[in-house]
């Protein structure tokens, strides 16, 4: 995926200026523990280090490290309330930034919503929705590819032909299910949902997800597919929705059973991958642009139950149920350009552990 910062900022700000939902404030939370910010304002309750008995002497080293590693913004939520929120390098709370491949998980969420509405079934063939010829594979091989294969990254299509998802770039290399490869072909799920709903992808996304939880942001086209841009709190809202098992206060948004599938191993090749979510705590993992299997956990010093949305140049959503945490990081690459996982994950968790333990 190309660096998205070349898109004029004023265009993004215009797009985002109309993206707030005008609905009244949502009902009171269903319990006294998990907090949800109002969907119609920027008010967001906070929680102190004293409440959590965290190590406040570890905060400044964490912030210094983040700033040194090209970070734009960083948020930690505990049971929905903000404990840490910091902006760096001229970034602000209202500045938009790209999610890169962390936004893949937005496609997962919408796929679950569309399935719950009876518009799609992820076990069906992609060609059932898009028609045949959406790849350059033979009809026999193309018809092996299901929507679930797209969400699981095991379509069997060649991952070495560039970012474009035009048919000429979607060439057969193995039968669906036989090979795991990190590939932009997942965006065809957006076409599936648009076709099945008879709406544009953006309209369906905004109506069914964004506006229901008070996010701002927009899908910006680049290189034959769309990348999501938003402010940091919008990413945190999405992370909170996932942490809350797909329910915002007492309103179901994403089916919980679908999210359980999405955040567990989805195929038998890469144990550390669900439906576009990366999973910690597994015994092995694969990385983008490689067919090698690596032994051990994705992030050995992070909690084993952590799962994550990981995007190019270290865009991060970490969700840790056992610690009641959602952690957000946006910015440039901490070190070298990368597609998802990097050494930064381990180093960052060393700093976070010093703070929360």
TrEMBL record:
Annotated GO MF terms: hydrolase activity
InterPro entries (alphabetical): Beta-lactam-related, Beta-lactam/transpept-like, Diverse_Enzym_Activities
Domain of life of the organism encoding this protein: Bacteria
Keywords carried by this UniProt record: Hydrolase
SUPFAM superfamilies, alphabetized: beta-lactamase/transpeptidase-like
Limits of the Beta-lactamase-related domain: 73-330
Keyword Isomerase attached: no
Signal peptide: none
Hydrolase keyword on record: yes
Name of the protein described by the UniProt record: Serine hydrolase
């Amino acid at each position: 995926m190309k660096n998205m910062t070349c898109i004029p900022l004023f265009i993004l700000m215009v797009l985002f200026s109309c993206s707030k939902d005008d609905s009244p404030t949502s009902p009171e939370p269903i319990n006294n523990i998990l907090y949800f910010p109002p969907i119609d304002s920027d008010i967001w309750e906070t929680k102190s280090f004293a409440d959590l008995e965290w190590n406040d002497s570890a905060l400044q080293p964490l912030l210094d490290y983040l700033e040194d590693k090209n970070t734009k913004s960083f948020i930690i939520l505990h049971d929905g309330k903000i404990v840490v929120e910091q902006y760096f390098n001229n970034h602000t709370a209202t500045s938009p930034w790209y999610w890169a491949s962390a936004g893949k998980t937005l496609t997962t969420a919408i796929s679950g919503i569309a399935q719950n509405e009876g518009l799609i079934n992820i076990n069906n063939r992609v060609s059932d929705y898009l028609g045949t010829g959406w790849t350059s594979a033979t009809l026999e091989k193309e018809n092996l590819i299901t929507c679930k294969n797209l969400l699981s990254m095991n379509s069997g299509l060649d991952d070495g032909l560039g970012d474009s998802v035009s048919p000429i770039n979607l060439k057969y290399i193995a039968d669906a299910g036989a090979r795991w490869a990190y590939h932009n072909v997942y965006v065809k799920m957006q076409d599936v949902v648009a076709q099945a709903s008879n709406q544009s992808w953006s309209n369906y996304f905004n109506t069914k997800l964004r506006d229901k939880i008070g996010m701002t942001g927009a899908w910006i086209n680049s290189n034959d597919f769309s990348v999501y841009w938003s402010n940091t709190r919008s990413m945190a809202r999405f992370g909170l929705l996932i942490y809350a098992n797909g329910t915002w206060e007492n309103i179901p948004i994403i089916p919980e059973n679908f999210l359980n599938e999405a955040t567990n191993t989805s195929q038998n090749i890469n144990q550390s991958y669900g439906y576009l979510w990366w999973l910690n705590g597994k015994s092995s993992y694969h990385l983008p642009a490689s067919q090698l299997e690596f032994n051990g956990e994705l992030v050995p010093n992070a909690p084993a139950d952590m799962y994550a949305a990981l995007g190019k140049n270290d865009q991060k959503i970490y969700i840790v149920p056992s610690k009641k945490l959602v952690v957000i990081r946006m910015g440039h690459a901490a070190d070298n350009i990368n597609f998802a996982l990097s050494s930064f994950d381990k180093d960052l968790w060393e700093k976070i552990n010093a703070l929360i333990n």
